[in-house]
Fold this protein.
Amino acid sequence: MALSFVQKRFMSSALQKWAYNLSGFNKLGLMRDDVLYEDDDVKEALRRLPESEIDARNFRILRAVQLSIQKDILPKDQWTKLEEDRLYLTPIVNQVIKEREEREEWEKNY
Amino acid sequence: MAANITKITFFRATATRGLATCPPVPIGGLTEYEIKNTTLPNNLVVASANNESPISRISIVVRAGSRNETPDNAGVTHTLRICAGLSTKNSTQFAITRNIQQVGASLTCSSDREVVAYTLEGTKQAIEKTLPFLTEVATQQVFRPWEVAENVPRQRLELALRSPQLRAIDLLHKAAFRRGLGNSLYSAKYQLGNISSETLQHYVASNFTTGRTAVVGLGVDHSQLVNYAQGLSLETGEGSTTPSPYIGGEIRSDKGGNLAFVAIGGAGGALKDTKERLAFAVLQRALGIGPQVKWGTTDNGVLSKAVGGDVQYAISAVNASYSDAGLFGTLIAAPSASAGKIVEAVVKVLKGGALSDADVNRGKNQLKTSVLLDSESGSNIIGCIGSQAALVGSAQSGSQIAAAIDSVSTADVNA
C-alpha cells in the first residue's frame, strides 16, 4: 500500500519515490511508522499492537540502530520501497487520539 | 419526584376512568398485568407487560448460556458476561458508560446456564436516550483484544468471590449433566486470558441469532417494543441446541475450612413439561428451603424435621428446571463432623418419603406466595419473563402461574 500521507495532487509517482528515498530511513530498512515520535498516544497504540507486529518492528529498529552505529546503510536492493511501506500504526494512533478527544469533550461538559 | 407521579396518575384517572374511585398506581407498578407475546416472522420473540411503573425495563435475552459451550471455548460465556459494555461498532466503552450514567439508567448483563440477558433499566426518558446503546452492547460488540485482556483481573475477582454453596451447586450440575447443562457458569482458572477476541466473536456470531433471541419489556408499550425488535440487526437462524440429558455421577472437591457442603440431586422437571416442573417446584417448597419467616429459625419443611434439631446445619431443597431437563435435590451445609449423619437422614427422605396433603398444601402456598412476591418487583420479573420468552416462546404472568400451581395435586408431587 502506498503511503497515503503524501499529497497526491502535486506529485507524480516518480516524484513521490524520489521524496521517499530522500528521507533516508528506508535506507536503514525502516518503515515510516517505525520512526514515529513516541508520545503518549503512540505509546498507547503500541500497547494495542498484536505481538507479531511488535516483533517485526523491534527487529527493524534493532537492525537500523546497528547500521547507524557502524555508519553503514543497507544495500540498495534491501531498501524499503514506497510500495512496500505499510502504515501499520497510524490508524491505531488516530483511533487513540479520537478516544482521547471524546474523553476530553466529556470532561469539559460534565 | 413523588409529586410528579401523583400528578400523572390523577390526570390519567380522571381522563380515562371518569370517576376517581380506583386506587392510585403503587410506586412499583401494578402487580396484576397482562403479558403480551408476539413472535416476529424471523422467529424473534417479543414479550412485554405494561405495569405502569415509572421505571421501564427492556431486556434482550439470548439463548447463549453456558450449556452451549464446547470444550474448545470453555469459559466463553463467563468472559462474554464480563465483557458486556466494551467497545462496539459505533461506540466506545467510554461513551457507553458515560452516556448511560449521565441519564441515570443502568445496563446489566446476567447469564445463566441457558440464556444471556442484557437489561436496560431507567425512567422512560432515560430509556429513550439510551436504547441505542442497549442495541449496540447486545448485538454489535466488537471485542477489541486489548479491552478483553484488560478485564481478566475482574474475571479473576469474580472467580475468587464465589461462595462454597455456589460451587457445590455448580459441581452438582457437572456431576448430573456432564456436558451441556453441566458446563460451569464460571470460567475455569486455566482458561482465564485464553479466550481470545476471535473466540468471542465466533461464539456471538453463531449464537446470537433471531431464532434464539427474545426482546422483553416491562413498563413499555408493546407495539413500540415490536418496532424496536424488528429493527435489531441479528442474523436469522435457529442455531443448534444439543440436548443435555441427565446422566448422574459424583464429584468431590476438597477445600479448606470446617464446613461441608453437600449437594445431592436427581433428575427433575423440564420447562417444557408443565405438570412435572410445577410438581417439582411444589416438592421443593414442601421439603423446605429454609425459614420462611423473617428472622425465624424454625423451618417446617420435611427435610428439617427428618434431620432433627440437635446439630447445627442449614438445609435447602434445590430445584432447577431447564428447557429439556431438570435437576432436583438438596443442599446441606454442616460442620464436617455431623455432615455424614445429616446426609443419611436426607437421603432417606429423598428416596422413600411420601408427603402428606398438609405438606403439599404448604408447598403450594409457599410457592404461590413467592411467585407473586417476585412479580411485584420489576427487576425480578424482567428476568423471569425474559427467560420464559427466550426458552419457551411465550411468557406467563405471575398470577397465571399461581393459578397453574393450584392445579398441582398431591398425587403429582408424590410420584
